[in-house]
Amino acid sequence: MHEMALTESIVEIACEEAKKQSATRVTRVRLAVGQLSHAEPEALTFCFAAVAAGTLAEGAELSIERTPGAGWCLDCGKTVPLDERFGACPECGQYHVQMTAGDELKIRELEIV
Amino acid sequence: MCTVCGCGEATVVHEHHAHDHHHHHYHGESLDYGGGLAGVHVPGLSQERIVKIERDILSKNDAYAAANRRAFARQGIFALNFVSSPGSGKTSLLVRTIKDLAGRVAISVIEGDQQTSNDAERIRATGAPALQINTGKGCHLDAHMVGHALETLKPAANSALFIENVGNLVCPAAFDLGEAHKVVVLSVTEGEDKPLKYPDMFAASDVMLLNKSDLLPHIDFDVAACMWNALRVNPKLEIFTVSARSGEGLPEFYAWIEASAARRIGAAA
């Protein structure tokens, strides 16, 4: 549900950056959205067209790269893949895993004209 | 027009006669963000090129939150962000806390709801200053809204500020408001697996209030299982089992508020 607010923030940052670069249009926005983050890529895409309308980013394509989740298992003493936030270690089954990757919500780069 | 950010999004609503003002100066007791489409407004100014920016999507909100946090630190204000699903008893808890702490801790309140100023009115009935923010379709408060609310509410130095977020166990977890701590309120009528179903909120919070404990004799609710679930998501979570109705468990929570607020005031002095 809060993807609308996130999308507004994406469009605002993209337009700000485009203006700084004296661009007339944003043609693509590349995001990195972690697999364990709280944002849903489909919802971001859905909101993007609506929010970008009437801005420099109108009609821009939104590319979303999903970054995989990982965590440090305190019991195994190593980094393990994690496909669920606060999930168990896939090797020992314990929940003593600190998330180390997969939480990001970032604008990586813009393509501008 | 807003002096901080140049925005013109909120409509100021007088308590009895609603007017539309496209600026942020305070004339009433509500800020309404639901009056129009959220404004994203940038006029246009060539070669296609790629610009690496690597910015957090939430960086805008986080900058506003940092500004709020600095303001709180300067003035010794201890800010708590109360989050929960609708109906967990947040407002009742705040009303009781304000009454019980009267004369011990000065408290002001920012109320967040999609519509109505019912909650702010309930708080004002206790004598504490309260400002209602209506988010319209918005599902959470953000740091920008809270920054504006501070301009109008002007909480006293060396006081406590309670921010009651929109009742929603999902979205408010992602938005830092500049608070010292998020306090998640869960009531015993909601089911002990909520921390596992909505883990982000329990991970983002430092304190959990397990409310409506007076109902425990009448329902099947496993307090230990609930706590275990919450601690699985956040091992550092501090948990108080309380009842806003009977007052049980609240003295421990009050002691925590007083000690934490005293630390803030000490740091600002």
Mean pLDDT of chain A: 94
Q: Which percent range describes the beta-strand content of chain A? A: 25-35%
CATH class of chain B: Alpha Beta
The shape of chain A is elongated
CATH homology superfamily name of chain B: P-loop containing nucleotide triphosphate hydrolases
| SSE order of chain B, one letter for each helix or strand | EEEHEHEHEHEEHHEHEH
Identify the strand order in the major beta sheet of chain A.
2-1-6
CATH fold label of chain B: Rossmann fold
Structural overview:
The complex is a heterodimer of chains A (113) and B (269). Chain A has 113 residues and is an alpha+beta fold. Chain A has a domain at 3-68 and 102-112: hypothetical protein PF0899 fold (2-Layer Sandwich), CATH 3.30.2320. Chain A contains 2 helices and 6 strands; from the N terminus they run αβαβββββ. In chain A, the strands form 2 sheets. Chain A has a 3-stranded mixed beta sheet with strand order 2-1-6. Chain B has 269 residues and is of the alpha/beta class. Chain B has a single domain (60-268), classed as 3-Layer(aba) Sandwich (Rossmann fold). Chain B has helices at 59-75, 90-100, 118-124, 143-153, 194-197, 199-204, 223-233, 250-268; strands at 11-13, 30-32, 49-56, 78-83, 107-113, 130-134, 160-164, 181-187, 207-211, 238-241. In chain B, strands 1-2-6-5-7-4-8-9-10 form a 9-stranded mixed beta sheet, sandwiched between helices. Classes of the chains: A alpha+beta (113), B alpha/beta (269). Chain A binds chain B through residues 1-2, 4-6, 8-13, 15-19, 21-25, 27, 31, 38-39, 51-52, 54-56, 85-86, 95, 104-113, and chain B through 38, 40-42, 44-61, 137-140, 142, 168, 170-171, 173-175, 196, 199-200, 203, 232-233.
